[in-house]
Amino acid sequence: MKISVYAICHNEEKLLPFFLDHYKQFAEVHVFDNESDDRSVEILKAAKVKVRSWKSNNQIRDDLMAEMKNNFWKSAKNRSDWVMVVDIDEIVYHPDFLKLLNDTPATILQPWGYCMVADKWPDYGKSIVSQVRLGIPDDSFNKMCIFRPDKIKEIYYHPGAHDANPLGDVVVSRDPELKLLHYNYMTLDHHISKYKLKAARMSQENITNKWGIEYLDSESQRIETWKTTREKATDVVGFTI
User: Fold this and answer.
1) Which of 1, 3, 5, 196 lies at a C-alpha separation of 20 to 30 Å from 23?
2) pTM of this prediction exceeds 0.85
3) Are strands 28-33 and 50-53 parallel, antiparallel or unpaired?
């Protein structure tokens, strides 16, 4: 079985080692770098993944990113059995993922989304799933991010890629053990610095359309949201790894 992972990256040097450690074990990885100025490209090239540059005038343009996500996976048609379209801070997890893919009659797998939170940064060289297990359900990350390129003609993600209107032989499955773990609240300091970076890159198109508008929250708002998430978080992995 051949699986291809597609992602867009901007300044993710801290999370990339975990992303690569997770996905490279069962898939070929394609990353489109969106004008990173940290060590992201260096890390990707050292890992020998397929990395290409992609420019957006150093701005967050969710409409352009949706267009990319609607098309870059098509290189897997007639080559791969499954594709996954994810972000660098998103980890698809199932206790027996390859068996799930092999056995399912579905053409699209839609995992259950969770917002993950951590008090301290995890150790490199170990699975992030085994180290950061606390989170809360987040329906906005119930993404149609795993599908068969030979059956799906178009995925038609909306800006933000949280919703989609797929076209083709569409059979959606929602296995209760399949999860999309969103590692966006990785320590309070990291969360705040990441949001500040995103706020500085917000395009007028995003602001006008209220795409990713949460990135413009004040620091006090982000602190309160992080603390509330941490207080509500429970072990959502549910399996010994």
Assistant:
1) 196
2) yes
3) parallel
Residue 202 dihedral angles phi and psi, to the nearest 5°: -65, 130
- Say which amino acid occupies 92: V
Q: How far is CA 206 from the centre of its chain?
A: 19
Whether 241 is covered by a domain: the verdict is: no
- Tell me whether residue 177 is exposed, middle or buried, using C-beta atoms within 10 angstroms of its C-beta: 0 to 12, 13 to 18, 19 or more: middle
HSE (side-chain half, CA atoms, 13 Å) at 236 = 26
- For 160, the 3-state DSSP assignment is coil
Tokens 């594709």, located at residue:
83
Give residue for tokens 């999309």.
180
Mean pLDDT of the chain: 96
Q: Which residues pair with 146 in a beta bridge?
A: 84, 109
Q: How many domains does the chain have?
A: 1
> Which of 81, 54, 148 has the alpha carbon at shortest distance from 108?
148
| CA-closest candidate to residue 227, choices 192, 182, 179 | 192
